[in-house]
Amino acid sequence: MYLSIYSFYIITLEYNLHIGCGLRFLHVSDTHLGARPYGSRDREADFYDVFSEVIDLAVEYGVSFVLHGGDLFHSSNPSPKAYIEAIRGLARLRERGIDFIVAPGNHELPKSAGRGSPIKVLEHIGLLRSPRDPSKPDVFNVGDVSIIVFSEWASSYLFNPDILQLYNSRIKIALAHITLCDILRDVEGVPERACRDRSYYSSRIPSGYSYVALGDIHTPWELRVPGRPPIVYPGSTEYLGVDEYRRHSERYVYLIDIESSGDISFKRIPLKKPRRWIIVEDTYSNVLNKLNVSSISRLSSTSDKKPILYVKVKEPITRDRRDMLIKHIHRLIDDGLILDYRLEVEVKGSLVERKYTSGVSVDDILKTEVFGKINIRDMDKILGILASMVKPESDLDNLIKELIGLLEGSEDTLRVLEVALKSK
Fold first, then answer.
1. Would you place residue 51 in the very low, low, confident or very high pLDDT band (cuts 50, 70, 90)?
2. Looking only at Cα atoms, what is the longest distance across the chain?
3. What is the architecture of the domain spanning 8-270?
4. What's the CA dihedral at 248, 254, 259, 262 to 10 degrees?
5. Is 50 exceeded by the pLDDT of residue 305?
């Protein structure tokens, strides 16, 4: 009866191992290959660096397989570079007989009917495994272990206890891309109303699983309650923005051991390659004091990568002081102490401004006299695109394509933007 209702697939992975001798695997999630926060190519490379480190750890610890909780890619239409880096890493695992199983996430699932998924491309060439039909759970068997996989589209099935009755395996592992409302509230401070009508809570996950491997929430989190399965979000492998760093300044993968008795133990493995942030939030004079070369140099020396500086001035300041602060920060860049910066400051008589490495903010562009000459209908569209471009999670390539498409055939609009940018 159950099979006729759910029509699941059952796939057996072939390994030269017996569960009686124990089993080891790696749990990772939200690698977001191809992400380019704020349009920075250096930041895009950070995501590839950390993914390579994850592959190194899988090889070093001799795991039998890797479970990925989704959002392997940042986009459902990744760049050639993102594909190359994914293939490079996954090919290393295949050479060593290490399987890679993915619960596709919202970032890589197709956004419209008829569009393909990059996950299916990699599966077609034998580099990973994922549900054949993302709208349904799928099962992969390894010896006496059943790995039940739920993509983001099938995540509601995770709460159905009947699924567990379909399999006689001694150990059942859930792999899902899902946002649990209580975790979103407790870990990331997002109101429960953001879950809308979904009742996705950790307490609803059936107790018959031995381990629940999740992805989607970027902050590392784990729940261990006696009599219930461990529920784990390893978190993202790299930071998309300062808020993620502020919530948790370390990044991990999880190493899980299944003993011959069936007992499961797991531990966090810290990642070394995520880029660090330096966060300075204070009054203007205190910010300047904290941004002295010796202090920044000391903080920068703790990592092989130059950190990103985030500065928030917690009082209104004059435009002259703002400009002086920007010059000071640029000296830190010129001295090779930081890679990039984000500055949030309220200039007296103006709105809050957010500036980045270029020193040009959206606010600056909007305040220029020539910007008012743009056609009103074009203005609304351009404002929307520009606002999206400065978000850390923005898909800059697609936004640029959209902007170019809007500006084609509109030389006046192009000229206005050119003048606005050159005036800064």
1. very high
2. 74
3. 4-Layer Sandwich (3.60)
4. 70
5. yes
Sign of the dihedral through C-alpha 179, 181, 187, 189: positive
Q: Whose structure tokens read 């569960």?
A: 19
State the pLDDT confidence band at 423, using cuts at 50, 70 and 90. Answer: very low
Give the pair of three-digit tokens for residue 19: 């569960």
Distance CA 363, CA 5 (A): 55
**Residue 164 phi, psi (nearest 5):** -65, -25
- 3-state SS record for 57-85: HHHHCCCCEEEECCCCECCCCCCHHHHHH
Lowest-pLDDT range of 283-292, 317-326, 405-414: 405-414
DSSP conformation letters of 354-376: EE-TTS--HHHHHHSGGGGGS-H
Mean pLDDT of 282-308: 91
Higher pLDDT, 419 or 170: 170
| pTM of the entire predicted model | 0.79
* Mean pLDDT of the residues in the chain: 83
Residue 261, classified by CB atoms within 10 Å of its CB into exposed (0-12), middle (13-18) or buried (19+), is: exposed
Q: Give the C-alpha separation, 371 to 383, whole Å.
A: 11
Burial of 326 (0-12, 13-18, 19+ CB in 10 A): middle
**Every domain of the chain and the residues it spans:** 8-270, 276-359, 368-424
What average pLDDT does this structure show over 33-39?
93
- Type of residue numbered 39: G
> Which is it for the CA torsion 164, 166, 168, 174, positive or negative?
negative
List pLDDT tens digits, range 176-232.
999 999 888 888 887 777 676 567 999 999 999 999 999 999 999 999 988 899 999
Tokens representing 268 are 């966090």
**DSSP alpha helix (H) spans, 251-318:** 284-290, 293-300
Residues 6+ apart with CB under 8 A from 139: 8, 9, 10, 11, 146, 147, 148, 149, 166, 167
Distance CA 62, CA 60 (A): 6
Q: Which amino acid is at 225?
A: V
What is the full DSSP assignment across 115-136? ---HHHHHHHTTS-B--SSTTS
Query: Closest Cα partner for 332 from 275, 292, 274, 289?
Result: 292
Here the tokens at position 41 are 């190519």
**Per mean pLDDT, which range of 53-57, 104-108, 271-275, 410-414 is the poorest?**
410-414
